[in-house]
Amino acid sequence: MKKFTLVSSILVVGLFVSSSMWPQNIEWKRQSSGVNQLLFSVASINFNYGCAIGHDGAILHTSDGGSNWNQQMSGFNERFRGVAFADSSNGWAVGCNGTILHTNDGGSNWNPQSSGATRFLRRVTFIDANSGWAVGNNGIIVHTNDGGINWIDQSSGIVDDLRSITVIDANHGWASGFDGTIQHTSNGGRNWKHQVSGTNQRLSGITFIDVNNGWTVGDNGTILHTNDGGANWHPQVSGTIVPLSSIVFIDANEGWAVGGNGTILYTSDGGSSWGSQPSGTNQFLWDITFSDAEYGWAVGDGGTILRGIRPITGIENEPLISSIPGTIELSQNYPNPFNPTTTIQFSITKRTSVALNIFDILGEEVARLVDNEVLAPGIYKRTFEAGHLSSGIYFYRIRAGEFEQTRKLTLLR
């Protein structure tokens, strides 16, 4: 979940007029994975920690936002197809022959779990460290409520391959697959019921943000949307005919879909209109995830890993005062203590790369207000909204060239 919101001191309102003029709210850049295997799924624990899996037993992990991706030893040579993390320690990977691997140490060690299945498992999802589901070929759905110590078969009622699953709480979940298949449960999987999708296209990705609003994507650029929990599904115009493999929404408005030929689609209005974003690759993109509204990853063929970052661009990066300050300085935030919003001002004396980060008392980064942006000389302000952070002492640090300074701020609820 998103823990913070970055609000610029100056607001800019844009008009979406066409895909060719679509605002580049997320910039996608390729990261070095160090492998050539197909990467089929990616899980984003937060903006620093991510895990990608793929063919030939490939499991990759990053703890620095993707600057470095490190291979982890799975002990298997399987084709992994799905990965999910419940927290920074507990994760699961699934693949062919009913394979399920589990880690409880962030991926340093992966251990097999018995799924009771022999068929291909294609996706896995967990709502906490105990409760999870995996789906795969021939309509298989397995469920655990003890972190995977025991996996129990749930009857999907179908034999079509299932390629994706999303679960939003202990009761409500949806799975999608071949021939336009959509299955739904409202009781934690004790019963799965068919929903009419209105298409016979293979559906490869599905996501819901609440019990009503969901989207699914598939072959020939198919995008379907529901606002009544799947009782009715309606097509949306994607503007492409390439197969779409994965979709994610961070709220009722902003969402992304990925697929063939390096396609990345974006919407800011719940899918009423979709436009393309440059990916910089022609590789097939199989999966996409966002840890919050600012940071995402997409993975695909040939070891492709793309990092999506919402930059501070244009007028947001213009200084409030353009004359060159006499000193470089990080001012005390105001108000302080605060609840839940405070302003941080800083000044720089020359054009340089600037990072402004927030840390908790344990030294864990909880927010990035300026993410290594090159700024002109001047005085700047950034507004920090603590969002869901708990009361306590936090620290904010600026790095501008060789200059570094840290100050303390206090959140009081």
Written account of the structure:
With 413 residues, this protein is mainly beta. Helices cover 0% and strands 46% of the residues. It is built from no helices and 36 strands. The protein has strands at residues 5-8, 27-31, 39-44, 50-54, 59-62, 70-71, 80-85, 91-95, 100-103, 111-113, 121-126, 132-136, 141-144, 152-154, 162-167, 173-177, 182-185, 193-195, 203-208, 214-218, 223-226, 234-236, 244-249, 255-259, 264-267, 275-276, 285-290, 295-300, 304-309, 329-330, 341-348, 352-359, 365-375, 378-385, 392-400, 403-411.
Please provide a brief summary of the model.
This protein is mainly beta and about 425 residues long.
The percent of residues in helical segments reads: under 10%
Helix- and strand-based class? mainly beta
Classify the beta-strand content into a percent band.
Answer: over 45%
Query: What is the end-to-end distance?
Result: 19 Å
Number of DSSP-assigned strands: 36
Mean pLDDT: 89
Which sheet architecture does the biggest sheet show?
4 strands, antiparallel
Shape by Cα distribution: globular
Radius of gyration, taken over Cα atoms and rounded to an integer in Å: 22 Å
Determine the number of helices (DSSP H or I, runs of at least 4 residues): 0
